[in-house]
Amino acid sequence: MKIFIDSANVEEIRKAADIGILDGVTTNPSLIMREGRDYKKTLKEICGITKGPVSAETISLDAKGMIKEGKEFVKIAKNIVIKVPMTQEGMKACSIFTKSGIKVNTTLVFSANQALLAAKAGSYLVSPFLGRLDDMGQTGMELIEEMRQIYDNYGFKAQILAASIRSPQHVKESALSGADVATIPFKVYEQMFKHALTDKGIKAFLDDWDKLQKELKKK
Ligand code: G3P
Is residue 58 in a domain? Predict the structure, then answer.
């Protein structure tokens, strides 16, 4: 499973790139609002950090507007993917982008039928929002399982991008359910590295190493 960072914070993205586990980035208007920076400049900087897909979200509600925005975004870098919402207008834009060779991430997907339509419109990535379904009392992960089955049944090439991830548990379950990609907030990315027994084990090894050095000095 590929790991994307779900962030518009350049420092976070750089940290993940330095670690070497970073397959791409997703951004959205809420994430860029948190940074308070110019969207296009930030996207350019992010595209300079990773060669993986970087999703840039359109804000227009009509296909014409989405296409206009998308055409501006793709000028930024070769690895830009245009994010459109799962609406009739969004799918219209998706079909047009796809036919002209521009990759699309269909976002705000909450049902298997929406995911089917997004794949049929030629989406490169399809983003089911797990956390937001969980927030509604549904089980977000079931949607990933349904999407996997539908895409495999018909050989759709669209990649399932597990989004709205809130915990390491979400990441693990996405991987087990066959998501192609998980886009992860940096906080969750950092949590994934941690385990109390790893810390305890490192401490025990270092303590033993120190003990040995002291004993060797006595000899
Ligand atoms: O990738 C979409 C994601 O950013 C939405 O996450 O936590 O706002 O539901 P959240």
Answer: yes
